[in-house]
Write a structure and sequence with these properties.
- This protein has about 525 residues and is an alpha/beta fold.
- The protein has 17 helices and 22 strands.
- The chain has 3 domains: about 110 residues, Rossmann fold (3-Layer(aba) Sandwich), CATH 3.40.50.720; about 180 residues, NAD(P)-binding Rossmann-like Domain (Rossmann fold, 3-Layer(aba) Sandwich); about 200 residues, 2-Layer Sandwich (60s Ribosomal Protein L30, Chain: A).
- The strands form 4 sheets. A 7-stranded parallel sheet has the order 8-7-6-9-10-11-12, sandwiched between helices. A 6-stranded mixed sheet has the order 14-13-15-16-17-18.
- Helix 1 runs parallel beside helix 12, helix 13 packs parallel to helix 14 and helix 14 crosses helix 15.
- It is elongated.
- The two termini are about 20 Å apart.
């Protein structure tokens, strides 16, 4: 059955056609996002939900979305989506960070010009028949220093435009490398230095706990007299009351504001100030940008629902359409390794180490880690997937460590999972052969070559004669057919393990009998999802 997507806000007909062309059933109901009750009533029918800003994806809506796998936001901001609630339910939340980058960057440059030359006031005055040449004395931007806070997608475009305008650009961004700064032609500086040197300051950072109120009375005091401030990013980055006070005192010569603390902003003290240019959150408002983000969200959601590719997800590692086929068997391997350890470990897990050896170390290890953790905790939490697993593991206080190394043995690449509890340490390793099927290659440090079966029995014991006969006799006694058998030992007479492949789950009373036998140290029933193996 084809996946089904609901479009509950306005999206271009081309975007809707993309869904159809890629094999996705789509219902285009652009006014449904405003009808909360109707949306709640129908959301359970859909695998995907495509939105803009009108639809509010609340915890209540997510609870009703029993089949929902992905929410796609045509735009950057996901303030209207309860991301923690979606993550706990294993729903991927995607945005489209690139579709309106140029548009927003151009709007910031336009506001900078407008503030520098007082264009809106001069326009209004001239339309009134006045000729106030001496009133509107502006400043050039050539040779001035532009301070960019946030040098990501949009900030970097602003930087290149500003360099082209012969401005000197300084940038603050904790994630900006020296090589990237050099490539953009900007100087990387600390925030206080940016405040002290910039003639113009433009904000291009998301709203987080660290960036909220980043422009306030204290930071304004560190700025040059006569600085001009532009904000096309997010309301809440600037304490508006502090900015207004600085504009009135002349400390700040002007401001261009596209976003506000409260939106829609129908009333605001900034509106009445001659040295402020205000626009109604127009950063992404061009026909090109609106079309681009609509097409992008349709492509991303279709690629995920049809191919398993993950792009621009807020709460999930990205998996490109090109790497998805190569990564898929190793994702299954990682999940199986986690499921094995999760089923045989009874004590609370305190630490997890995932080793990627050889070619696996060059893969998308974030996705592989998520798959491992999903398999690991699924025996305790049935409703978990790659999206929700990392959150659930973190909530349980489990420490997760990742190790990468070059090829160290006969396998081109493998994954080894080690978990620690208060009383013991367990490890298991696996790889994928040319057929793409996962294989166990080491358990408890004992080498073996074992496939994955739907129903299995795992035992540990001292290496001694009679174990195979014992297990075969017990299975025969309880009418359990053995499909296959895998054995391993560390040395003759040392520790040994056995994996029995069964046609049906091993009965609980038979399991108790195996565990009670003096030659058996431990026995565990295992069950794996073998679909696609």
């Amino acid at each position: 059955m084809a996946p089904r997507v609901l479009v509950s806000d306005k999206l271009s007909p081309t975007a809707v056609q993309i869904f159809k062309d890629r094999g996705v059933d789509v219902d285009y109901l652009p006014d449904l996002g405003k009808d909360k009750e109707k949306l709640l009533e129908v959301i359970g029918q859909y695998d995907g939900l495509a939105i803009r800003s009108a639809t509010k994806v609340t915890e209540k809506l997510i609870a009703a979305a029993t089949n929902l796998k992905v929410v796609g936001r045509a735009g950057i901001g996901v303030d209207n989506v309860d991301i923690p609630a979606a993550s706990r339910r294993g729903i991927i939340v995607m945005n489209t960070p690139f579709g309106n980058s140029i548009t927003t960057a151009e709007h910031a440059i336009a506001l900078m010009f407008a503030v520098a030359r007082q264009l809106p006031e001069a326009n209004a005055s001239t339309h009134e028949g006045k000729w106030e040449k001496n009133r509107f004395m502006g400043v050039e931007i050539t040779g001035k220093t532009l301070g960019i806070i946030g040098a990501g997608n949009i900030g970097s475009i602003v930087a290149t435009r500003a360099v082209g305008l012969k401005m000197h650009v300084v940038a603050f961004d904790p994630f900006l490398s020296e090589s990237r700064a050099e490539e953009l032609g900007v100087e990387k500086v600390e925030l206080d230095e940016l405040f002290a040197r910039a003639d113009f300051i433009t904000l291009h950072t998301p709203l987080t706990d660290k960036t909220r109120n980043i422009i306030n009375a204290e930071s304004i005091a560190k700025m040059k007299d006569g600085v001009r401030i532009i904000n096309c990013a997010r309301g809440g980055l600037i304490v508006e009351a502090d900015l207004i006070a600085a504009l009135k005192s002349g400390k700040v010569a002007g401001a261009g504001i596209d976003v506000f603390e409260v939106e829609p902003a129908t009333e605001n003290p900034l509106f009445n100030m001659d040295n402020v240019v205000c626009t109604p959150h127009l950063g992404a408002s061009t026909s090109e940008a609106q079309e681009n983000v609509a097409l992008q969200v349709a492509e991303q959601m279709s690629d995920y629902l049809i191919k398993g590719a993950v792009s621009n997800a807020i709460n999930m590692p990205s998996i490109t359409a090109e790497e998805a086929p190569r990564l898929k068997p190793f994702v299954k391997l990682a999940e199986v390794l986690g499921a094995f350890v999760g089923q045989v470990t009874e004590d609370p897990i305190k630490e997890v180490e995932i080793l990627f050896d050889g070619l696996t170390a060059q893969m998308n290890t974030r996705a592989l880690i998520s798959a491992t953790l999903a398999g690991l905790i699924r025996p305790q939490v049935a409703d978990v997937n790659m999206v929700s697993a990392p959150i659930m593991v973190k909530e349980r206080g489990i420490i997760v460590a990742e190790v990468k190394r070059d090829k160290s043995g006969v396998f081109d690449g493998y994954i080894r999972l080690t978990v620690k509890t208060e009383h013991q340490e367990r490890s298991i390793a696996g790889t994928c052969f040319s057929d793409g099927k996962p294989r166990f290659i080491q358990i408890k440090g004992i080498n073996l070559d074992a496939e994955v079966g739907q129903h299995m029995l795992y035992t540990t014991n001292a290496d001694a004669p009679g174990i195979i006969g014992l297990l075969g006799t017990l299975c025969g006694k309880h009418e359990v057919n053995i499909a296959n058998f895998a054995l391993g030992r560390n040395r003759p007479g040392g520790d040994a393990i056995a994996l029995l492949y069964l046609d049906a789950p091993f009965p609980q009373d038979a399991l108790a009998e195996v565990r009670a036998h003096e030659k058996i140290d431990s026995a565990k029933r295992l069950q794996f999802d073998v679909n696609g193996l």
